[in-house]
Amino acid sequence: MADLALQGHLEIPAWLAQQHEVKLLDFNQALNSKSHKERWKYTKAQPVLDLLKLEARAPHVTINGRAVTPATTGHGSIQSPLIANLADSPEAYLALCNQHLHSLDIACSDADSALIKIELEHTHSTQPLMIKIAENTTVELIERTSTENDLHQTLWIALGAGSRLVHSRNDFANGNRWRYLKVDIGQDAHYNLQNHSTGTSLHRQDIHLRCTGPGAHAQISSAGYIPKAKHLDQQVVVEHIAPNTSSQQIFHNIAQDKAKVTFNGRIHIHPHAPGTVAHLTNKNLGVGDSATINTKPELEIYTDDVICSHGATVGQLDEQQLFYCISRGLSPLAARQLLSQAFLQQCTLGVLAEEATNNFKKLNG
Amino acid sequence: MTLLEVKDLSVSVADNAILKGLNLVVNPGEVHAIMGPNGSGKSTLANVLAGKPDYQVTSGSIWLNDSNIEDLEPHERAHAGIFLAFQYPVEVPGVSNMEFLKASLDCLAKARDEPQPNAGAFLKRVRKIAQTLDLNPEFLKRGVNEGFSGGEKKRNEILQLLLLEPQLAVLDETDSGLDIDALQVVAQGVNSYRNENNGVVLITHYQRLLEYIVPDYVHVLADGKIVQSGDKGLAQELEKKGYAWLT
Ligand SMILES: Nc1ncnc2c1ncn2[C@@H]1O[C@H](COP(=O)(O)OP(=O)(O)O)[C@@H](O)[C@H]1O
Ligand SMILES: [Mg+2]
Question: B121 to chain A nearest CA, in Å?
Fold first, then answer.
């Protein structure tokens, strides 16, 4: 593999350089490290790096139905969740270098403890957005992508102690995508991602969740339908850093003829994180001929006293279930569609579920 | 016109001969009980009638309403009027029972050139049938057979029977695993389905069910053939003597 190269004129903004001691040299190292190559084994990284050069605009945000303009964060004010290892995702740092960073601080006033609803509508590449949710605040985040343009999008979220976030996102439009999501989950905070997507000529999702406070809980349900000859690459890392944290992940993907699907799910349990409970399931269904499905669940455990499970399967529709449906009068095609839909339905949850289901039905029909 | 005629049927599964020249005639309005020891081929007969893949008809023929059906696909057989209540109903997580029932009924209505039932009437009808079978309406929202007890699965098969109203019902050990109360509920369901135009092939291992669903004929299947036929008295005799004296 040829070395990855950054565009020549990259300048690391002073605030980033100071705070994280990021140097141009580090970028090149991180981009060409062994672990980076492993993460980008099935998706070419260079087009994503090129994508990051695209002009990005401020994200469209509404809060409880009202349009808001996120603050453009200056220097020095950035704390968690940006603090992380450059090597984890040099692309995300590149996004920070290339673009303005926006931030939203969400807190419920004492007077109104009602649910706060944030909506993000992506119609173009967006400049990185950081959402900080104050302690004991309950938020619903709804994210939709409605453009067929190529798009990159970086989202950093920090959940304060005792906060709750249900994050639903649908991405069913065509176009190349690189989506980066990083979430720090504080003490007793709960994060729940409901992720529904289709494949495109290049669709890469990087999801990095960190349970940083004791009692933090992370949950992901994700359904994907990758049409003929399309691509979806999901790279998921869940870190358990504090004791008594838990995570539950379930990913179901269907790959049509010649589609290419990659799932890489790593659970990383740090030292001093006893009482961790972490479960991961990835199920893939190949429909039609010659889909390429790569799935790799990984465990890294550095603490005793944890409960951990992970499993991945690649299969086809169940013959017994098919016969059961067909014996009731469904045509073989209708039975296949019904069972495919059911497979995705198990991971299609939340406020965007109906919209997602309709999209899956169209893809499946 | 005969409803079902099975002529000299031989069937192999994975190159093992299971049915070896079986004959059976069911006329409209009749209930035929098929009894026999474990492994005698009862489920094989049921599956082959429904058209399950992997069952190879090596000789003989199957006729429904005087039309040959061996070349029909399973869904075409359902459209032609065959219904199989499975010995082991399959769980289909992610498909709600209601959705499944609606999909089946819509397919059959289309095949029969009947209008698709409207959603309200459908819902009402399903709820009513569920009630007669002592099935909690909550079951209709759950995944098909998902997490159902053995008895609930069997009752769900009868619910489908009553909803889809096929011409020929093949019930494969619908009584096994049922307690006496559930057995009566299921029997009542089957009896309410019976009329002069349809027929039932009632496969069972025990005579008990036949106290509640009174058959017109009882056949004993052993080693892939019907070795004895009679009326319900034969079932009582089998209960006393077992199967050994017949083979
Ligand atoms: N799919 C199969 N593959 C191999 N053998 C089978 C299969 N289905 C049934 N058999 C065999 O066929 C014989 C009859 O089985 P079955 O029809 O299920 O009997 P019954 O229902 O009377 O208990 C048994 O010996 C069984 O092992
Ligand atoms: Mg059997």
Answer: 20
Domain CATH for B48: 3.40.50.300
Do B50 and A324 count as a contact with CB atoms less than 8 A apart? Answer: no
Task: Give pTM, 2 decimals.
Answer: 0.89
Min distance B243 CA to chain A CA atoms (Å): 31
Q: Which of B95, B108, B114, B146 to mutate to test the interface with A (most CBs of A within 10 A)?
A: B95
- Is residue A175 within 8 A of residue A206, CB to CB? The reply is no
Task: Give the bridge partners for A312, in sequence order.
Answer: A282
- A143 in helix, strand or coil? strand
Domain presence at residue B126: no
Residue B51 domain flag: yes
Q: What is the Cα–Cα distance from B39 to B61, expressed in whole angstroms?
A: 22
The pLDDT assigned to A75 comes to 45
- Measure Cα distances from B221 to A87, B109, B174 in Å: 71, 35, 17
Q: How many residues does chain A have?
A: 365
Please give the residue range of the domain that contains residue B166.
4-89+149-241
Closest CA to A268 of A27, A118, A85: A85
Instruction: Confirm whether A178 is domain-assigned.
Output: yes
> Is residue A361 one of the residues assigned to a domain?
no
- Which residues form the domain of A170? 14-318
Residue A196 included in any domain: yes
Residue B94: inside a domain? no
Q: Is residue A20 part of a domain?
A: yes
Residue B168 lies in a domain: yes
Count: domains in chain B: 1
| Predicted ipTM of the assembly | 0.96
CB contact under 8 A, A329 and B75: yes
How many domains in chain A? Answer: 1
What average pLDDT is seen over chain A? 90
B104 touching A (Cβ < 8 Å): yes
What's the pLDDT at A87? 82
Indicate which ligand has the atom closest to the C-alpha of B39.
Answer: 1
Helix B97-111 and helix A332-345, axial crossing angle in degrees, nearest 10: 160
Which one has a higher pLDDT value, A83 or B200?
Answer: B200
Q: What digits encode the pLDDT tens for the residues B155-165?
A: 999 999 999 99
Ligand nearest to the CA of B176: 2
Question: What does the pLDDT look like over A333-355, one tens digit per residue?
Answer: 999 999 999 999 999 999 999 99
pLDDT of the residue at A83: 62
